Fold:
Amino acid sequence: MTERNRLSELAALTRQVAKLSPTTLIAAESRFVEDLGVDSLDLVALVLEVQERFGVTIDEDQIGSLRTVGDLLRLISEAPELRAA
Amino acid sequence: MHRRGLNVRKRLLRIVVPALRAMGPAPAARIVSRIGRIEYDLLPRLRLRFDEAVRRGAAHFGAHWDIPAIGRNLAGNQIRWRTRDLLLDGVSDDHLAPLFDVVGRDQLEAALAERRGLVLLGNHFGAHMMPAHWIKRQGLPLRLFMERPHQVSRFLQAGFDDDGPLGQRKLFVSRKADTAEAAASILRATKVLKAGMVLYIAGDVRWSGQYSVATQFLGRSVQISATWAVLSALAGSPVVPVFCHMRDDGTHRLEFLPAFHVDPDQTKGPALEAHVRRFLEEIEARVAADPANSNDYFFWSEPDDPAVVLGRLGRRPVATQGVSR
Structure:
């Protein structure tokens, strides 16, 4: 899966989990809290979904520094499961 | 209690507790309570505070309580409450058992038998750290989900700095956590539950961050943390409420209530609010039945109340949950 496809899938997941409207623009630079209004519970649900959908494990220690969709995308891309594939 | 007075008491307790321990936990608890009652008898301002607090409680329930008698017992219980589980260090398991009259053990065992972890739902009624101590003494894998408690036994503190994947250290919550850190904290706690462990968390914590519910408690408008219910919903773990009533003879009545579940779709909205309110009603019923075990609640609106102090300082509330005074 290309990085672009991965971003597109992550954006769709974010939209679904945070119940964002179809018109909300979700880009790599979008900030979860300030731009998308995602709360911590949405973020928990999103990380759980991401782990399942992409087959990766995300360490909780890394979540504390998540600010943007791009940050989460980077964690997915750098996950050992995907790097080994 | 004014902060300075509290600090003096804490220091005194730190000196006195090791000596008391030698007497055995039940006699030591009785002596600690007696110290509180003597303070009540000798210090008019303190007596007034306790009586006023009890009077507010009586007014809320429309009860005709014997204010001085309850105030005096409350003064005794409150100081004992502040020793948390410190009197239990060094007590053998054989000597510990008679200190707890355990009710509803079958409820606890049935919930554990589900093997889906367990949210042990505590509160500040009675002896709030004793359930954690007792659980750990049973050899059950226990984690605390709260602010790091300081005045607790060495037995309970062992493992506080464990930094492993399911270690205790990272489960202590901070009042400064932001959204992402709060999410990380919730995920860690969920992982602990999914690993089949017991997670001890209080259900009566005032909170104005995420996962909190606006409600009434003892006649006051409060915002209460709903983190425990969210965790149960996310992990699919049963919730077992626990109460630890302090008895005059220095022993405790440890009561486990029937387990219940929070559905996965109840992490927000009216269903979540109902869970929180139901638990608060359970606490209120106990306060009404035994106001002298209500060591904290009657003093919530006083000037040194942490929630009031934080509000005055304009500090952001914690994002997930905090406990323990």
Observations:
- Confidence is low (pLDDT under 50) at residues 308-320 of chain B.
- The longest strand of chain B covers residues 239-246.
